[in-house]
Amino acid sequence: MSVEGSAFVAATADVADDARIQDGAKIWHLAQVREGADVGPRTIVGRGAYIGTGVRVGADSKIQNYALVYEPAEIEDGVFIGPAVVLTNDTYPRAIAPDGAQKSAEDWEAVGVTLRRGASVGARAVCVAPVTIGRWSMIAAGSVVTKDVPDYALMAGVPARRIGWVGEAGRRLEADGVGWVCPESGRRYVENDNGDLESGDEHGL
């Protein structure tokens, strides 16, 4: 494996020889990082987590204990993946074919989950591929995501539905008559013509 700079890999972690662990990243006990995976700078992979073959994880992300990130997932910078989260990769999972023959890796086409910058997925949530989780969105613990998630969306339920908006600070936004405002930072957001949320910076607010 390629361990760069101040990266740390626990002695009990299982990291493939050709995996890349970038500067400042930490791979904790019993985590598995598969062949060709690339863990970005300062990213933390918790105890017992799984990073699939060829998965790219951006900088400053946190993948908590026992999360399962199956290939071909794409994880951008600053993403939070909570404990025991599952990112699936098979639309029609079967162990055997109709004739009873055991299916092999060549018998299906992997599809992935994409998590955009700053997104957070709460504990034990399941993201059913193929889906894209938008920037700075937040998925409540225990949710099951089956459709693409807009930027800044607050999602909850089975299946997950949007129940509000969150800002970059992670707090639920409050309506103020003009748009939406973060109660912690005071930052403003507005809905565009498609009903999606955008930062007020893009509109001079």
Number of domains: 1
**Which structural category do the helix and sheet elements fall into?**
mainly beta
Using the 3D structure, state the CATH architecture. Answer: 3 Solenoid
Number of helices: 0
Mean pLDDT, rounded to whole units?
Answer: 94
Largest sheet: 9 strands, mixed
How are the strands of the biggest sheet laid out side by side? 2-5-8-11-14-17-20-22-23
Identify the CATH class: Mainly Beta
* Shape by Cα distribution: globular
Q: What's the Cα radius of gyration?
A: 18 Å
Number of strands: 27
Low confidence ranges: none
Helix content: under 10%
Query: How do the helices and strands follow one another from N- to C-terminus?
Result: EEEEEEEEEEEEEEEEEEEEEEEEEEE
CATH homologous superfamily?
Answer: Hexapeptide repeat proteins
Features:
single chain, 205 residues, mainly beta, 9-stranded mixed β-sheet, 7-stranded parallel β-sheet, 31% strand, globular
Structure description:
With 205 residues, the protein is mostly beta strands. It has a single domain (2-92, 110-169), classed as Hexapeptide repeat proteins (UDP N-Acetylglucosamine Acyltransferase, domain 1, 3 Solenoid), CATH 2.160.10.10. Helices cover 0% and strands 31% of the residues. It has no helices and 27 strands. The chain has a nine-stranded mixed β-sheet, with no helix packed on it. Strands 1-4-7-10-13-16-19 form a seven-stranded parallel β-sheet, with no helix packed on it. A hairpin with a 5-residue loop joins strand 26 and strand 27. The model has no long low-confidence stretch (mean pLDDT 94).
